[in-house]
# Entry
Amino acid sequence: MIRFATLAVLVGALSFTAVSTSLGRPWQEGIEGSLGVMPYRYYLPAGYDDSIDYPLVLFLHGSGESGYDNDRQVRVHIGGLIDKTESEYPAILVAPQLVLPRGWGPNQPYAIDQTPGILAHLIDTLSVDTNRLYLTGLSMGGFGSMEYLRYYHVDQPDVLNFSAVAPMSGAGLGFGFSPQALGVMNDTPTWLFHGSNDPAVPSSDSRYSFQLLVSADSDPLPSPLPPIDFNETALGQPTAVVGDIRYTEIVGGGHAIWGPIYNNNEFYDWMFAQSLAEPAIPALVDIKPGSSPNSVNLKSKGVLPVAILSTDDFDVNEVDVDSLRFGDPLLIDNGGTAMSPLRSAYEDVSGDGLLDLTLKFSTADLVEYEALGSDTIEGLLTGELMNGTPFEGTDSIRIVPPNGSNGNGLQISTVPEPTTLLLATLASVVLLLRRRG
# Structure
């Protein structure tokens, strides 16, 4: 099959580090759809499984890709984005197409921009992790990225929120964005990109947008705005970083700077690291309390006890029992299903005078739904407190080899305990003396 290759060299003889030039999936693989007058395509990650929630990336094209054909917006410029979200960074990629190059936004005349409806439909029908929604666009789409960041985070904050936004060759925050809106928008991790020699949209646009975002918490805005300090290097280019806001200026770059960026893993490492989900707090978990090692027989028809231990910093009475799930984290990441407990009780299993939460899981269910397996060495318990705060804890597991083997089909002999060995020796001596007598 002929594969679509993404141009890995910038106009203007720019060079980036770690740019992939490997062939990727063709743009034609995008699934076509439309809403009203707006066509769109979306791409599913390789091996898409509707039991797994995937990140979603919304891409907004530039003015030159407007039209009705539903291919121009994906046929050029974003081969790297289409490729990277297939398997290396598995995500759902959505690319709507404006029929006219009049700019992005929900209030465009003639209802030519149906992006909110398309997003709502795909989030409702696909398996989407709404804590990991990302927004990026180029040129007119860069302006549109910031417009939709404002729309959802300022005007419609209860509908959805983006975890990160990355406008390229245009942001436009100097045009009608109030200080109040900017003060909300700058809570979202943002990475702006611009070529220093852009003849279409001057780099001063992204520079000014960066200055506005990093100064937005000041009331009133400082005048003049603080100068930009390019204090880091990213993608091999000078980069200014202030908190969660960053701006990379491509030295000598023109307007079409996006090819190497969408091919660069450093960009995706940053983007997909952003999430709205709270980090889980640690919990002390004890598998088979009072037992060591924590041996588990996968053929058992009984239950596996797991306890969450109370500490001075963690009260099990605040745990939402219905949220609890248990399993091998490696198996769960590869399609297994974490299981909920059959029953629970409060008792002090650690002997410290604090009530602990004991749980009983069906061993047969853990095996059947691939939450535990023959290679399991660790169990992960996840859940939430009543206030929604996530927590997790782990403990080691030793899987009992089947039929006395070592797990590779080889029979193993059991080494007797010292007391057993002594009794066996004494019995042999007594038997020998009797025979001699």
Q: What stands out?
A: Residues 367 and 373 are 6 Å apart (CA to CA). Residues 1-22, 405-421, 429-433 have pLDDT under 50 and may be disordered. The chain has eleven helices and 20 strands. The two ends are 88 Å apart (CA to CA).
